[in-house]
Amino acid sequence: MSEPAFNPCVVIPVYKHAYILTTFISKIGDYPIIIVDDGNPKSERELLNNLLGGRIFILTLLKNKGKGAAVVEGLKKAIEKGYTHALQIDADAQHDLSAITLFFNEAEANPEALINAYPVYDATAAAARKAGRKLTNFFVELETAPNAIKDAMCGFRVYPLAQISKIIDRLYFKRMGFDIEIIVKAYRYRIDIINMPVKVVYPKGGYSNFRLILDNLKISLLHAYLVTTMLLGAGRKDNASSS
């Protein structure tokens, strides 16, 4: 049976970044876009609804569920609509959108692989932010293998939907730990991971949904869970259909 034709889309989870999204969404190109309204306030929802139409579909969650839950809902909607691949983009305007075509080209050439971005920072990146990332990536190497995943927190990656569909209902960390958990589990389920660079900037006055204490605590719990499951034998599966 032949592989389905490459049919990509873009999935963007949005919570309190609606205005920022409106400033750059036209730069995404002609790809279909699924915006996940993650329980936004009325004013933000109205901005998003103004984008509706043509290639842009809006999936509305009535209550805020967190970034991870929003991405999962977006991936499920992409599968339902018949797309083969979905590029996750954060709505905070940090990623270089000129990389979209490069990432989709790589995904088309490697249709069963997850194309994962690792950040190339400019001078706007705070030292503390980069240090925190290094710590997370250190733990990810313990949970997977050296150099398998160059960065586990960048919200810019192409998911092969047929492969990732076997994982998305087995995720427990539905907020900021999502990016880490899904890629570690993708590795464990023998989904090939191709790492590619993307330029990352931190816009002046940008708003972050990251809760410094609570989200760092939950990410610490996530690493404890991933290390423990690895020690208990949940390393790489024989195949992606294993339980």
Question: What this model shows, in words?
Answer:
The chain has eight helices and seven strands. The protein has 243 residues and is α/β, with parallel strands linked by helices. It has one domain: Alpha-Beta Complex (Spore Coat Polysaccharide Biosynthesis Protein SpsA, Chain A), CATH 3.90.550. The protein has a seven-stranded mixed beta sheet with strand order 3-2-1-4-6-5-7, with helices on both faces. Strand 2, helix 2 and strand 3 form a beta-alpha-beta unit. Helix 5 runs parallel beside helix 8 (212-231). It is globular, with a radius of gyration of 17 Å. Mean pLDDT is 88; it is low at 238-243.
Summed up:
It is built from eight helices and seven strands, in the order βαβαβαβαβαβααβα.
Number of strands: 7
| Biggest sheet record | 7 strands, mixed
**Number of contiguous helices:** 8
Q: How do the SSEs run, as a string of H and E?
A: EHEHEHEHEHEHHEH
Gyration radius over CA: 17 Å
Give the low-confidence spans.
238-243
- The percent range for helix content is 25-40%
End-to-end separation: 25 Å
Strand order of the largest sheet: 3-2-1-4-6-5-7
